[in-house]
Amino acid sequence: MNLPAVRRREWSPGRLRGGPQPRGYAVKAVPGGFPQRRATEVPWVSARQMREVQRIAQEEFGLDILQMMENAGRAAATLALAMLGGRGRGQRVIVLAGGGNKGAAGLCAARNLANWGCIVEPVLGEVEEESSFAARRQLQILRQAGISDHFDRDSSQSTLEEHLRYADLVIDALVGYGRPTPRSGIALACAELAVASKRPILALDVPTGIDATTGEVTSPVVPAVTTLALDLPKQGLLIEQARPYVGELFLADLGIPRKVYEHAGIHIGNLYCEGPIVRIRR
User: Which of 58, 170, 173, 230 lies 20 to 30 Å from 198 when distance is taken between CA atoms?
Assistant: First the structure.
């Protein structure tokens, strides 16, 4: 199967095969410097409740999905950089991005990490023409910014497998909270290769293969060392069978007004009073 991946000169298969191999960087699953909350202090939501929050934010308050995914992507890049030591020094990051809104957040994270000195390779787990508006817009920005060229239709599973082998960090942004695992196609191949690579993975919102509401595990489940939940943590992350795949848990503010939560009957208290990224201790 061909995979639409971005090739970068700094990370070509030829360079990896010939001569000394690039030095890897240690990844911290729990980087310091972020405020903490106990799980009992945080409201946990189902996928249905999260959809209602986003509906109210967009339809009644006028928030744009591009705004929310931009905030999500920047938060993901901030946590990823902290996991990589807090400074961009050429660390190699692969972003597995689906064609939905979470994929858009992953592509936004790729742009920020590239700006901050990492070598980033986005892999789109969807036919571009079938991707969401937000994902297509992020792809356009990547190209216009010169961070990526057009997606290489000749890239193969073996190419991605090789690149994953030398990645310092992989970001899982394949599927959103409404669908636990890809059913077929490019995204499924990406998930399977990520599992086989055994590289450190940062999952966005919910790891691929975990049901956001029930915590049910469906193969292929992509195990994360760290998960960054978006806006509010999903109930499935608390379920015992899911916890080994969730790893350490952080939470990111997407800039949704507090009154949106009030309209949805959710009390968030002072969840983000110390900053937009919070570690949740379970």
Answer: 230
Contacts 24+ apart (CB under 8 A), 58-65: 60/260, 60/263, 61/256, 61/257, 61/259, 61/260, 63/255, 63/256, 63/257, 65/101, 65/104, 65/133, 65/134
pLDDT in tens, 211-225: 999 999 999 999 999
Rg of the chain in Å (alpha carbons): 18
Domain count, the chain: 1
Is residue 67 within 8 Å of residue 231, measured between CB atoms? no
Under 8 Å between Cβ of 102 and 130: no
Domain membership of residue 110 (yes or no) is yes
pLDDT at 25: 87
16, pLDDT greater than 50? no
DSSP result, 96-135: EE-SSHHHHHHHHHHHHHHHTT-EEEEEE-S-GGGS-HHH
Q: Is 79 part of a structural domain of the chain?
A: yes
In this structure, the chain runs to a length of 282
Neighbours of 169 (CB within 10 A): 24
Q: Report the b/e string of 109-139 with b at 16+ CB within 10 A.
A: bbbbbbebebbbbbbbbbeeeebbebbbbbb
In a domain, 17, yes or no: no
pTM: 0.91
The CATH number covering residue 259 comes to 3.40.50.10260
Task: Name the amino acid, one letter, at 180.
Answer: P
Give strand pairing partners of 1.
none
Give the pair of three-digit tokens for residue 110: 């790729």
Q: Which of 44-48, 175-179, 235-239 has the lowest mean pLDDT?
A: 175-179
For 152, phi and psi rounded to 5 degrees? -85, 110
**Segments forming the whole domain that contains residue 261:** 28-281
Residue 64 lies in a domain: yes
